[in-house]
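Before the break, one more example. Copy the sequence into your notebook; we will annotate it together after we see the structure.
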Amino acid sequence: RHMFLRVRIYTVMFLLRHLTIFWSILIFLGTVMSCRPKTVFVGRGASAIVVSDSVLSAGGVDTLNLGKVREGETVKKDIVLRNIGEKPFAITDIKHGCGCITSDFNRKPVAPGQTKSVTNRFNSVGYMGEIIKKTYLQTSLSAMPYTIYVVANVE
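Here is what the structure looks like once it is written out:
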């Protein structure tokens, strides 16, 4: 009878230990997955910014409004630059006022009448309330950058 009881106790302890490990792994994975930034695509398409060689040469200014964003999300929005000027231009560099914004672009020239897409991402981790950040597009037409204000309301 003591042997049967001992085997039963060891069996229960074995099961409890493995269940504890199993639940610990599930809780860990759930925590990691819930803390991972989510990418949200804002709007149905891209924001079109119409530019000409004269606007880019003067170093124009525009705004990219991301609207309401939940804290912790990474928001992705494309800007389409349409060249209505008479000269081709290329984006040579994009700089940001902080590390929370990144951009993807290629350096291929944009001919008159053509468009180019620039993908922007804003990581809202650690932000709350109204934010305004600057992005500077450097083009082949001017030493002055084209400034885009990125605006969002982080909740």
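The longest helix spans residues 2-35. The radius of gyration is 26 Å. Try to locate both features in your own notes.
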